[in-house]
Design a protein that fits this description.
This protein is of the alpha/beta class. It contains 13 helices and 19 strands. Helix 4 crosses helix 7 and helix 7 runs parallel beside helix 8.
Length: 457
């Protein structure tokens, strides 16, 4: 089957050009004008941008956390992602205590069988021993080329520096990438217990007990360990100028230091955590939202290339029945926000506001994550031979974000009532239409696992 997308403006990380796109056998076959082809399916993209499908390299579908599970599974979460212009996610498989990596990976493959978009997997390492180190190499050979380590959540995910260093050295030998949740969990744990003893139970105290200085310290330490191990390191969900300055310092030393931020840290702030009553629980995530004056510095980091990716850390928990587990104790509020459907359009807001250019937008939302996590050039661009993962984007469409209209399986939106411009109007995966003018045309289970190569950034 041949599809022709005509009359649109093709936007990649490097070019913006009026051109038609021909799709055959799930791949992009040709790009140009006056191609003289006939097609089974013609999509008119007049006054639209034709962009590569988004690549979100940080999602959590059906993740167990704090006695609950993320409310989106791979079916609902990937469908919502597609409505939001994202056609590939990379989720996190989790090793349980007392087991190897293989069992956790197989558990996530079972969950991912319902995916409607393509997906890859990272591996969260909770214990480091000789068997786990051996399995890391095996997983790299199977296309799971990145491993996430935690410096926070004592007794749940947190590893000591020696374990982190051992895993980093193993990754250096295999060419894998180490992803770091960088917060100094020990002092944070002390502060949490102190605040609760003092009767400070409201949601805002989640942010006040996880100060930006403890993120900055952990980022600095993570890159020192990575430098010693000789491995690239990638900081997930960076939130603050303290942490960003630690990234800049490492990069200035020539360390292969990389980091992502998320829409919530560009648009939301500590003030949201302090909303009246228990409303602030909707905004509890880790690391927490920062005072609003950090946002400008993060935008600067995106412009300068100090931050390479905008992902979501999508981890939705319902306000009613999940977030309210912490009604009288902020430390029991499940950590995470729903945003996989909003990333594309919210980041496009950065173009509208003049923070970033159109090509940089595509680079951040699609090309750079695909390169950094071994999906490029199959994903993340529009080029002959690449997968026909394409978004026909209407830049003039005005709407309000709302839980009443989103497709995520969660009962609230962090961005309720926010006015945005831009809509992924037609979304295609390997040439198959998933979303068409607000209608779902995808298929449960049609998403494919995409083995990833080593970092190419």
């Amino acid at each position: 089957m041949r599809t022709l997308i005509e009359n649109g403006t093709v936007v990649t990380a490097t070019e913006t050009v009026k051109a038609d796109v021909v799709i055959e056998d799930e791949r992009v076959a040709a790009i140009g004008l006056n191609l003289g082809v006939t097609a089974d399916n013609v999509i008119d993209a007049n006054d639209r941008y034709v962009m590569p499908g988004g690549v979100d390299v940080h999602t959590h579908m059906e993740l167990p956390f704090g006695g609950s599970f993320c409310s989106d599974d791979f079916e609902t979460g990937t469908r919502a992602a597609a409505f939001g212009g994202t056609t590939t996610i990379v989720d996190f498989a989790v090793q349980d205590y007392g087991e190897g990596l293989r069992e956790g990976l197989d558990r996530w493959f079972d969950k991912a069988g319902k995916a409607t978009t393509d997906y890859g997997l990272h591996m969260i390492v909770r214990e480091v021993n000789d068997q786990v180190l051996k399995e890391m190499d095996e997983l790299v050979g199977e296309g799971v080329t990145s491993f996430k380590l935690f410096m926070a959540y004592p007794g749940v995910f947190m590893l000591d520096d020696a374990s982190i260093f051992r895993a980093m050295r193993q990754a250096a030998d295999s060419g894998a990438t180490i992803m770091m949740h960088a917060e100094n969990g020990g002092p944070i744990d002390v502060l949490v217990r102190q605040f609760l003893e003092e009767g400070k139970t409201e949601p805002i105290n989640h942010g006040l007990t996880r100060p930006a200085a403890m993120e900055g310290e952990a980022v600095h330490r993570a890159f020192k360990l990575a430098e010693l191990a000789g491995v690239p390191a990638y900081i997930v969900h960076l939130t603050s100028r303290d942490a960003l300055n630690a990234v800049r310092e490492a990069r200035d030393r020539g360390v292969p230091a990389y980091a992502e931020t998320c829409p919530q840290y560009l648009y939301l702030s500590l003030d949201d955590l302090g909303r009246p009553g228990f409303e602030g629980a909707k905004y509890v995530c880790s690391p927490p939202l920062r005072p609003a004056d950090h946002q400008e510095e993060l935008w600067k980091g995106l412009v300068a290339g100090d931050l390479q990716v905008v992902s979501t850390d999508h981890a939705p928990f319902n306000y009613s029945g999940q977030k309210d587990l912490g009604k009288d104790d902020f430390s029991k509020i499940p950590n995470g926000l729903p945003s996989v459907e909003d990333r594309f359009t919210l980041l496009y807001g950065g173009v509208e506001k003049g923070h970033i250019g159109l090509n940089r937008f595509v680079e951040l939302v699609a090309t750079s994550p695909a390169k950094m996590f071994g999906l490029y050039p199959r994903k993340g661009t529009i080029a002959p031979g690449s997968d026909a993962d394409i978004v026909v984007f209407d830049p003039s469409h005005e709407r309000e974000i709302s839980a009443q209209t989103h497709h995520m399986n969660v009962d609230y939106s962090c961005y309720e009532g926010v006015s945005v411009r831009g809509l992924p109007e037609v979304v295609m995966q390997r040439g198959n239409v998933l979303v068409d003018q607000g209608s779902w045309r995808g298929t449960t289970g049609a998403g494919r696992f995409v083995p990833r190569s080593r970092m190419t950034a």
